[in-house]
């Protein structure tokens, strides 16, 4: 462990300069760094008054990411008004920070030349984001307006599938041949024009004659080494290489596992073609980890800026699928119609068994889906996981079965208490098994386990809940 | 946009050096970079044979993060055997990479001196992780064995609440007084001993005499500037400062929003006390975004390495809570006992209305919880969100109501079809409203909306489903 490194400042300090405002200020942001409703209100009022000067004054002090947030918070109708009021503040960074849906909406309203101009201000990876979801003809019109070189970079990115490293990587990076020294690279960086270098870079990748990475140097290592040192003596040989075809979820897992700040992306032949940096990966990881809750619930993209029609299409198919599984469960109930007619208590109590089973199944399923996504659940430990979940289910089942069994025995009759307790135990065990098995099977079939597991697990726990409870009641001679 | 920056390599290249193995090799990893089951099997076999030499040979080529993965995949009983077989490979990094539960287990088996020795190898933030979940007396015993300076750093971190920047930040960073030049800082870094500097750093923070940050310099800016340039001319004044008390979820949001690689952490007086870097934030973001799915399902921590008893305690309380809400729904059904006795079809069909309503509510709730976590849903746009969800619910409700209404009208009787369609419409609208309102209310009460929303939304949709369907059936004169 080392100490905090602070340089002596006993020497005379330079005269105090003006201090910038802290980013988290009280006037415009709340304690969670969100724009205050009062601030948003004042912008909307100024827009309503048509007072573009006031709008500009209000928005000017904001960081680009906050300007983007402001657009997202405004109603769709107010967004073009805001854009018109602050043309000089509508930088490429603001556009890049916008939510996909909000951005696509705004881009569709602009002529291709204007979008092309914005795209050329951006790094390739941001420009690709800007264009990838537009209609093919809009995309083509915009690309036609761009410089050939930029166009080629974007087209090459679009040739890779969505959510792969090839699509997401930055094509701007610093690579050095292996014969260079520390002094060579420093001189090169000093002499280069700013626009020849990436906006931000944290490592220099060392490549061989075939342009294959042979090692990587963190900038701090280069700064600390004497000028005459060969780069190959400073660099680390053991580096994580990201294949262009790697899915973004795996890229996120690699960055997490190996605690990376940036990593080289290589093509099919092992040649360096781009880099991924941790600031982009933070977004990816958030998206990937956050989408499981949306997928499991059947909410599709789940973005609050998604157009209503898209949200409807994404969600209604899962509701209809659920309708199908609910009908299966109903058919099971219908088999026991005579029993229910005889003993209405069965109808009163049966949803309890189904509901708790569904909840227990969802718990196990959530744990399983998360473990699969994090690469923690593999073929090597699946059996252990199933065994573990069955033991948890045994404990959960016993607890819930005793509670409901005793309550029903007291309120209805003892035998019915025994029946509901047994049905509950069975259903929670089945839920534990299904909660692991369904996502694992989807994963083995190369399907995303978060997408459809819910429907199947719920069908199993609903059907089993009704069947076990009603079936046991009939078997016990209580009715039917 | 700039081109890829590759330096000319027309000069004669240095002789080819040995190439390191790529990290993603075919022998030990599958295509998702997980350890292959066959490889894990061979380690287990060697452990079973007591052949520590073979174990060592198998494990030695692995990256520390993979050694940690291997421990996690092994059964708890095999882990001490593996540790004993590879004492020299059990570095601080392996320990730091271990899953919390697996690590705590292993630490509890070691004497305090051994743990203290491991902790001293680590950066403070990793050492804190190692100690924070141990029993207070174990913690005290370990701290007593450490160097006073390291102990003080860890105690200061432990004084901050869990999951705040103060607990998580690295206390190692490079700060420079504002009178320094680029040459001064380069000379300082060159002359410093390696153990006086952080293991990794990406920015130099410029501070005033009171040790408050006034700006930040990316290393690349320093490298590119002439030696005589004052740091204050190179630095960016507008920087994101993280207060020590900030919750990790907000830290993750700041890094995402402002695309940070590292950021200065400041204490109550605005003084620089630490830094957070993107490699740690990637973990935090993954944990925060991933925990929503676990919390919403009531699965607690949801870690597959959590001891069974902990998993039981975490989950059973939600099952019991759900039992309570299911009983409420049952009480509503019981109110309509006479109607069900008269028309068993009601019992057969009623779970459909409750089930689809529950699903629709879960969809909206997932979207809302995610939007709150991402700071996208604020007081400024809550009303718009509710209105949006109601419109989606109207579309979903209409679709599902028509489908089930027609089917029931054909299979049972027309009037019952009308009743179930109306009940479905009502329940899906209620689900949409509850799906937004419940998490938003929890958030306004400063509660985590992911924790308990599910129980309430399900109770509302179940109860409303049964009440609307059975109540409308009775009102329509179908039964009762």
TrEMBL record, chains A, B:
- Biased segments, Acidic residues type: 1-11
Q: Which GO terms describe its molecular function?
A: magnesium ion transmembrane transporter activity; metal ion binding
**Per the database record, which ranges form the CBS domain?**
235-293
Q: Does the keyword Disulfide bond apply?
A: no
- Which segments cross the bilayer? 318-340, 346-372, 393-412, 418-442, 454-479
- Transport in keyword set: yes
Give me the stretches of Basic and acidic residues compositional bias.
16-32
* Region of interest (Disordered), ranges: 1-32
Q: What does this protein do?
A: Acts as a magnesium transporter.
Report the sequence similarity comment from the record.
Belongs to the SLC41A transporter family.
Protein name per UniProt: Magnesium transporter MgtE
């Amino acid at each position: 462990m080392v100490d905090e490194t602070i340089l002596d400042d006993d020497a005379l300090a330079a005269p105090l300069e003006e201090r910038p405002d802290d980013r988290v200020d009280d006037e415009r942001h709340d304690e969670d760094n969100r724009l205050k409703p009062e601030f948003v209100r004042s912008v909307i009022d100024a827009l309503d008054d048509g007072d573009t000067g006031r709008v500009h004054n209000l928005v000017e002090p904001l960081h680009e990411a906050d300007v983007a947030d402001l657009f997202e918070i405004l109603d769709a109708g107010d967004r073009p008004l805001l854009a018109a009021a602050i043309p000089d503040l509508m930088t490429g960074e603001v556009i890049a920070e916008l939510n996909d849906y909000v951005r696509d909406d705004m881009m569709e309203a602009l002529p291709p030349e204007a979008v092309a101009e914005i795209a050329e201000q951006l790094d390739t990876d941001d420009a690709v984001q800007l264009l990838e979801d537009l209609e093919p003809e809009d995309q083509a019109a915009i690309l036609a307006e761009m410089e050939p070189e930029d166009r080629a970079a974007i087209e090459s990115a679009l040739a890779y599938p969505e959510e792969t490293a090839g699509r997401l990587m930055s094509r701007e990076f610093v690579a050095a041949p292996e014969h260079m020294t520390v002094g060579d690279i420093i001189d090169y960086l000093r002499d280069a024009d700013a626009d020849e270098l990436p906006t931000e870079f944290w490592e220099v990748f060392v490549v061989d004659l075939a342009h294959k990475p042979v090692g990587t140097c963190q900038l701090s290592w280069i700064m600390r080494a004497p000028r005459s040192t060969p780069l190959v003596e400073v660099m680390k040989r053991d580096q994580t290489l990201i294949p262009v075809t790697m899915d973004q979820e795996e890229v996120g897992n690699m960055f997490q596992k190996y605690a990376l700040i940036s990593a080289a992306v290589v093509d099919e032949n092992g040649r360096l073609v781009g880099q991924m940096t941790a600031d982009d990966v933070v977004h990816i990881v958030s998206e990937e980890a956050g989408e499981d809750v949306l997928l499991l619930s059947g909410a599709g993209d789940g973005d609050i800026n998604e157009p209503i029609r898209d949200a409807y299409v994404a969600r209604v198919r899962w509701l209809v699928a659920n309708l199908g599984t609910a009908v299966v469960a109903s058919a099971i109930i219908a088999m026991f119609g005579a029993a229910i007619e005889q003993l209405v208590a069965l109808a009163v109590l049966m949803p309890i068994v189904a509901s708790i089973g569904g909840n227990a199944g969802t718990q196990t399923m959530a744990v399983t889906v998360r473990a699969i996504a994090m690469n923690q659940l593999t073929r090597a430990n699946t059996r252990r996981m199933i065994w573990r979940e069955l033991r948890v289910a045994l404990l959960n089942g016993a607890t819930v079965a005793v509670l409901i069994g005793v309550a029903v025995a007291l309120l209805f009759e003892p035998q019915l208490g025994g029946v509901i307790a047994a049905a509950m135990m069975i259903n929670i065990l089945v839920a534990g098994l299904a909660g692991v098995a369904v996502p694992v099977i989807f994963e083995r079939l190369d399907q995303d386990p978060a997408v459809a597991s819910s429907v199947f697990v719920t069908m199993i726990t609903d059907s089993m809940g009704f069947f076990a409870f009603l079936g046991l009641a009939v078997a016990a001679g209580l009715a039917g």
